[in-house]
Description:
Blueprint: H1 3-23, E1 32-36, H2 42-66, E2 76-79, H3 82-88, E3 98-101, H4 110-116, E4 117-123, H5 126-136, E5 143-148, H6 162-173, E6 178-184, H7 193-213, E7 223-225, H8 232-237, E8 242-245, H9 247-250
Parallel strand pairs: 1-2, 1-8, 2-3, 3-4, 4-5, 5-6, 6-7
Amino acid sequence: MEDDDVRERLAAVRDRVRRACEAAGRAPDAVTLLLASKAQPLAAVRAALEADADLRAAGLRAAGLRAAGPVPAPVLLGENRVQELVAKAPLLADLDPAWHFIGPLQSNKVNAVLRFARCVQTVAAPELADRLAARAAGLPAPLDVMVQVNVSGEPTKSGVAPSAARALALHVAALPGLRLTGFMTVGANSPDERVVAAGYDALRALRDEVVTGGAPGTAAADGLSMGMSRDLELAIAHGATVVRVGTAVFGSR
Ligand SMILES: *Cc1c(COP(=O)(O)O)cnc(C)c1O
């Protein structure tokens, strides 16, 4: 994949997000784009970050001229594997991207992740939350975390069961050192859009329940990380605040 292709594809995805927000009656900056960089060469990730800065600068100029709408936030970067995060992050540090960890995390890898990630989206058990909290206590600011929920119940998918998700969220919210910023899921692997949408609605209902419950530490828990290359429009229509996109920007892995 050439850098120009990455640039074009990123612009196209930005456009898809913008149009999906418009169709859903949501503000153009209501959804943040996370680029899932797993198995992608460093050059492609760098090209995407640079292209994003250019696109946003152009968008800001346009918004200034029209005295119009908000411009979406810079892209986030997401990594699934600790090893890849540790390898890539230092080499992109000059661009200061915000890394989110979006893969399964073993307790013994927590320190490596905390060196680079601003948010761990994949907290699916109280033990991991406790370990993160203990290590994050030494950081200057709390670590952002999301609770990952397996809304579809597919056995191959990570995430806490929906029935245990609220309790886990409240556990996380009460931990010092962590800031609960919302909920994450990988949508059902189904050709039936209604099945996928039902999972997204379940995540949103859980989010609403936790946030309106008003327990300590839940005030910032309004994020919904859901939707990928093939279904980001659906996820945005159902309330996503972060969509995680890999192949649509970088091509196949
Ligand atoms: C790879 C990955 C994505 C992106 O998937 P695409 O289909 O390539 O857009 C999103 N979320 C997670 C957790 C991933 O591992």
